[in-house]
Amino acid sequence: MHAMQYEFTLPADYDMGVIRSRVARVGHLLDDWDGLGIKTYLVRERGHHGSPVNQYGPFYLWNTVRGMNAFLWAGAFQGPVDDFGRPRIRQWTGLAFEEGSAARSPAAFAVRRRQPVPDGVELAAFMAGAAEETGRLAAGDGAVLAAAAVDTHAWELVHFSLWEHDTPKAEGDVYQVLHLSAPGRGALPRGRQW
User: Fold this and answer.
1) Could you please report the per-residue DSSP string of 51-103?
2) Segment 133-151, tens digit of pLDDT
C-alpha cells in the first residue's frame, strides 16, 4: 500500500462551490481506476472544523505503484495541474490499514494527522505503535476506515481516517469528503504491512 496526497490552498474568499462542482463533474472518473485502493476528494473550508484555509486536498491509498504512476504520468493528473498549478505531492509507504466499525457507511469526513518520527526512538516499536493506533482509530464509533503510512525521507508519519459523521474521534486536520472512489478497497491489505 502506498499513500499519496497533494493540496491546493485557495484564496480566503474563494468560492468552494467551484471545487464541489468540479468533483461532482469528474469524481466518478477514478471509480474503476486499476491499482487504486481509494481516492478521497477532500476539502477544508476556512472557519469550518478549525481550518485556517480553503483547500482542496485529495488523499489516495494505492494498491500498486503502477496504478499510481498511470494516474500521474498518463494524463489524468494533468487536469488539476492545468487548473490549479503543479503541487508538491507527498508520498508515504504503507504501515497499516483497517476497515472501520462503520465500514459499510458512506464517508462524510476525513482526518489527517502528520507527525515527525522522533529522533532516538526504536523504529520497530514506534512503527508497531502506529499500526496499533490504526486499529484503535478503526474501532472508534463512526470510523469507516483508518490507515497509517510513513515517509522515510522526511521521517514523517501520517494517520488517515474516514468517518461517517462530523464529529470524528481522531485528532488532526478535518476535511469534508465530497466523493470516494474505491475500486480496489477490498484488495487493500489489512493490518500491519510487515
Assistant:
1) -SSEEE--EEEES-HHHHHHHHHSSTTHHHHHHH----EEEEEEEEEEE-TTT
2) 999 999 999 999 999 999 9
What's the CATH number where 8 sits?
3.30.70.100
Residue 13 inside a domain? The answer is yes
> What is the distance in angstroms between the CA of the first residue and the CA of the last residue of the chain?
11
The pTM of this model reads 0.96
Q: Is residue 85 a part of any domain in this protein?
A: yes
Domain count across the chain:
1
Q: Tell me how crowded residue 6 is: count the other CB atoms within 10 A of its CB.
A: 20
Instruction: Give the integer Cα–Cα distance in Å for 140 and 163.
Output: 9
CA 29 to chain centre: 18
> Using one digit for the tens of pLDDT, what is the confidence trace for 76-115?
999 999 999 999 999 999 999 999 999 999 999 999 999 9
